[in-house]
Amino acid sequence: MEPEQETGTDRLSDLPDDLIRRIMSFLHARQAVRTCVLSRRWRDLWRSLNRINADFCDFNGETDTWEGDQARFRKFVNNLLLLRDPVPVVDKFWLRSYLPLGANAEEASADANLWIGHALQLQASVVEVDQDIQTWNALELGGHAVFASQYLTRLVLSAVSFAEGFFKQLETGCPNLEHLYLYDSIIHVDNISSQTLKDLIIDSSEFSYDYDTSISTPNVTSLTLIDPAGHVPLLMDMESLASASVYLQFDVANLDTAININQWLMGLSAVRYLALDFPVGVIEIEDNMQWCPEFNNLVNLTLGRWCLDSKLYALTVFLQNSPKLEKLTLEIDEGDIQKIKGELKETSFTCDNLKIVEVTWLEEDLQEVMCLEDDPLVNRVKKLFLDSGMTSLQINITHLVYSLSYESEVFREDHKRPRIRP
Amino acid sequence: MAAATDDAGDSNEMIRVVSSDGEHFEMPEAAANLSLVLRHMIEDDCADAAGIPLAVVAAKPLAKIVDYCTKHAAKSSGLTIEEAEELKRFDAEFIEVDTDMLYDLLVAADFMGVEGLSKLAVQRTADLIKGKTPEQNRETFGIVNDFTPEEEEEICKENEWAFQITKPPSRLC
């Protein structure tokens, strides 16, 4: 019944220009330009796309050396930016580069800065810089007022480092920047501050090992901080923070005392939704030292194994400081257990609104699931709530495959890594 | 006018639409709301028993669009990972259509303002173009090369910065 594809009827070319341009916007720039030879209809369409996806990988291996490939890539992007129509404006500029061992990162960085600056002059609201996963070196961004644009709202950077003054430039030069996502980057700066950022992701990036970086972003409502290396950045002004996902995997040098931890957690204390995995080294908290601030807005809390020592000390402290809590999730994996230990004079807590406790057991392999209804840890958790008189509390126990679920609910929403290759 | 009730939030309400070739379809209001055009018609009380006429959408693509909207409306917010994956699989299968249907969907989704479907169809079309030589693309889409050989050579030369290739990409990426 299906009609055979009639050859000779070219319905693609009959689509309105706007629709064809939208289709072409999903192509890498090189392929988009190459449609110019299809027919007269297509000859100049590439000139007026409002997305530019410039990918080094489209040139990779064309000559015998990286330098040769890079030279062609540079020539391509330069020509593209020069020869495209000045209108329409660009709404998104995406650049992917690749720096092998020994590559001239300085030159590649200069190119990248030039192109980004050009895209910003074309009023790009989204700029994304990605690197091939096998890249060896970071691109250094910034310098010479590259990042000055009232149109830029979203900046996504992978495997980059920052020229001196980069974040200052961003703060003063980009008054409408709301989303800043940094992946696999080197962030050796004293201070990141912005009055306009609403959404901040810093994933697998390196801060200085010698000093603390402070982050002052009073309008950020959503923060994701995953596996920072070096000193964990200090969160200074975070009064608008509504949801935060913090997953620290490594030992954290600057969170080694109750006072430091307290100060650090204070930066998160405004949140409503919090997912916190925080495997600090074993810390003995003496004399009821206060390390956990009050979370007076917190309604939804996810904690990892770090808070579950044999006395459930850290969990109890969190519950004592979260009076409005409605839902608690405990994500338990088989990893090393490092934890905060301490003695509590008073172990009771009041969470009148708490309705649900989800205990999520993270498995690497679902085949190995044991019966965990009787697990001592789960029983301790149940007992904790019973002892505080919360008899009607609903406690659910589920098993999830590690790779799928380690990213908690809040975390999953925020963490959409724009990495191209799996 | 008469059939549209005041409780606009009631998603159990069925909305009728009529294709350009006169076929009638029904979908839940929540599904119809995924189309900007239908949503405005419903808000303006234009959804009556006779059905909303869609003058430029034929029955075949309309059936697909009703299918798409119904599926997506049933699972809108608060998806679990599994549900999101399932929806993704549905989309992938849904858009496995011949180029004729693809054009119909491109135009109809654009006209009806069904954003998710429009993006899906656009992405699918781009995927068909990707990685192909101009000759292969002409073949896939039935594009007639109306350049003279001299003109074609000139264009290639003019844009040689996008064309020059010596051997297929290999090392990584």
TrEMBL record, chain A:
<dbReference type="InterPro" id="IPR053197">
    <property type="entry name" value="F-box_SCFL_complex_component"/>
</dbReference>
<dbReference type="InterPro" id="IPR053781">
    <property type="entry name" value="F-box_AtFBL13-like"/>
</dbReference>
<dbReference type="Pfam" id="PF00646">
    <property type="entry name" value="F-box"/>
</dbReference>
<dbReference type="InterPro" id="IPR032675">
    <property type="entry name" value="LRR_dom_sf"/>
</dbReference>
<dbReference type="InterPro" id="IPR036047">
    <property type="entry name" value="F-box-like_dom_sf"/>
</dbReference>
<feature type="domain" description="F-box">
    <location>
        <begin position="9"/>
        <end position="56"/>
    </location>
</feature>
<protein>
    <recommendedName>
        <fullName>F-box domain-containing protein</fullName>
    </recommendedName>
</protein>
<dbReference type="InterPro" id="IPR001810">
    <property type="entry name" value="F-box_dom"/>
</dbReference>
TrEMBL record, chain B:
<feature type="domain" description="SKP1 component dimerisation">
    <location>
        <begin position="116"/>
        <end position="162"/>
    </location>
</feature>
<comment type="subunit">
    <text>Part of a SCF (SKP1-cullin-F-box) protein ligase complex.</text>
</comment>
<protein>
    <recommendedName>
        <fullName>SKP1-like protein</fullName>
    </recommendedName>
</protein>
<dbReference type="InterPro" id="IPR011333">
    <property type="entry name" value="SKP1/BTB/POZ_sf"/>
</dbReference>
<comment type="similarity">
    <text>Belongs to the SKP1 family.</text>
</comment>
<dbReference type="GO" id="GO:0009867">
    <property type="term" value="P:jasmonic acid mediated signaling pathway"/>
</dbReference>
<comment type="function">
    <text>Involved in ubiquitination and subsequent proteasomal degradation of target proteins. Together with CUL1, RBX1 and a F-box protein, it forms a SCF E3 ubiquitin ligase complex. The functional specificity of this complex depends on the type of F-box protein. In the SCF complex, it serves as an adapter that links the F-box protein to CUL1.</text>
</comment>
<comment type="pathway">
    <text>Protein modification; protein ubiquitination.</text>
</comment>
<dbReference type="Pfam" id="PF03931">
    <property type="entry name" value="Skp1_POZ"/>
</dbReference>
<dbReference type="InterPro" id="IPR016072">
    <property type="entry name" value="Skp1_comp_dimer"/>
</dbReference>
<dbReference type="InterPro" id="IPR036296">
    <property type="entry name" value="SKP1-like_dim_sf"/>
</dbReference>
<dbReference type="GO" id="GO:0006511">
    <property type="term" value="P:ubiquitin-dependent protein catabolic process"/>
</dbReference>
<dbReference type="InterPro" id="IPR016073">
    <property type="entry name" value="Skp1_comp_POZ"/>
</dbReference>
<dbReference type="Pfam" id="PF01466">
    <property type="entry name" value="Skp1"/>
</dbReference>
<dbReference type="GO" id="GO:0016567">
    <property type="term" value="P:protein ubiquitination"/>
</dbReference>
<dbReference type="InterPro" id="IPR016897">
    <property type="entry name" value="SKP1"/>
</dbReference>
<feature type="domain" description="SKP1 component POZ">
    <location>
        <begin position="14"/>
        <end position="73"/>
    </location>
</feature>
<keyword id="KW-0833">Ubl conjugation pathway</keyword>
<dbReference type="InterPro" id="IPR001232">
    <property type="entry name" value="SKP1-like"/>
</dbReference>
